Amino acid sequence: TTSVVNIAAALAIRKKKVLIIDNDPQSDSTKAVLPRDSRIGFNLYHLLDLEAPARPKASECVYSTIHDNLFIIPNITETSGLEIPLAKQHPESNFVLRDAVRDFAIKHFDYTLIDCPPTLSIFVSNAMFASDFVIIPMDAGSGNSMDGVSGVLKLIDSVNEDAEHKLRFLRILINKIDKRKSSHKGVITI
Predict the structure, then answer these.
(1) Sign of the dihedral defined by the CA atoms of residues 49, 54, 58, 62, in that order
(2) What backbone torsions phi and psi does residue 112 show, to the nearest 5 degrees?
(3) pLDDT tens, position by position, for the chain (190 residues)?
(4) Which residues face 137 on adjacent strands?
(5) Is the Cα dihedral 12, 59, 38, 113 positive or negative?
């Protein structure tokens, strides 16, 4: 979340029109960039809810943020309840986010960044099918982060077997670095 918000804000400062899709039900990106008094109507929940009688257009879910040129499709914690219904519709449900936002985002924004939960889930899979590139954030001192990177790389390969376009691994973004610790130094040199 911190990486997505900071990269998005940096691009917006450079006069790029940027969209954040808060794909994490914890909704931390939403909390970070929406003005405190914002009232959220349509949001990511409504775009992903396959059982809704009618889903809104992506444009109806976009909100201005505290930064010029930066917009967000916010999320709410109730979205976590969609994981099981989406999983039951697998593999067709892999394309729900892509079908809801990809064409709109390409047409109206210079960059779209999707904030994902820290675990591999149907939400991460949806983000990958909607994306062109993947940046994997990794904590420098965490062995679990190294295992997570391996899992994400395998998921990228799996997505590329089924996607219409090739998803490309862009970078590992190492964060929470303490150069005084040898374990952190080792990760930085990999």
Answers:
(1) negative
(2) -130, 125
(3) 999 999 999 999 999 999 999 999 999 999 999 999 999 999 999 999 999 888 999 999 999 999 999 999 999 999 999 999 999 998 889 999 999 999 999 999 999 999 999 888 899 999 999 999 988 877 766 666 666 677 777 877 777 787 676 888 777 777 765 555 555 444 444 5
(4) 173
(5) negative
Residue in this structure with the two tokens 């790029």, named with its chain if needed: 16
Residue with tokens 């914890």: 26
Q: Are strands 168-175 and 70-73 parallel, antiparallel or unpaired?
A: unpaired
Sign of CA dihedral 114, 115, 117, 118: positive
Dist. CA 173–CA 68, nearest whole Å: 25
DSSP state of 14: T
Q: Name the β-bridge partners of 134.
A: 169
Give CA–CA dist 63/53, Å, rounded.
23
What is the sign, positive or negative, of the torsion defined by CA atoms of 3, 151, 139, 188? Answer: negative
